[in-house]
Amino acid sequence: MSRANGDGGEGLNTISEDGSEQSSNGWEKGREREREKEREKEREKERVEREADEKRRLDEADAQRIREITSKAVSAILVGMLKWFRASRKF
């Protein structure tokens, strides 16, 4: 519901549900608050996506590190066994 504000017809005041009057400037502020909330939601969504990407990269790096350690351990065991068999065969 709207009505003229009575001060020369410069603009309209909006009467909200609670009965208080808001000028068109108040409406613009409300719209700006809504836009800011939407922007904040977008920023939060982007932050969550960045954190998920970072976690995924760290998980991949951990998996690569584990593969390297495992392959070095297996290689060390095989080299040790080879040396042991070679040494035990000479005597």
Tell me the layout of helices and strands.
Blueprint: E1 2-4, E2 12-15, E3 21-23, H1 24-90
Structural features, described:
There is one protein chain. The chain has one helix at 24-90, and strands spanning 2-4, 12-15, 21-23. The protein is mostly helical. It has one domain (2-90). The model is unreliable at 1-7 (pLDDT under 50).
Short descriptors:
3 strands; 91 residues; rod-shaped; disordered N terminus; three-stranded antiparallel sheet
Strand arrangement within the widest β-sheet reads: 1-2-3
The radius of gyration is 35 Å
Major sheet summary line: 3 strands, antiparallel
**Total count of helical runs of at least 4 residues:** 1
| Secondary structure tally: strands | 3
Helical fraction: over 70%
Shape type: rod-shaped
Q: Domain count, please report it.
A: 1
Q: Can you tell me the residue ranges where pLDDT is under 50 for at least 5 consecutive residues?
A: 1-7
End-to-end Cα distance, whole Å, is 106 Å
Mean pLDDT: 83
Percentage of β-strand residues: 5-15%
Concise overview:
By secondary structure, the protein is mainly alpha-helical.
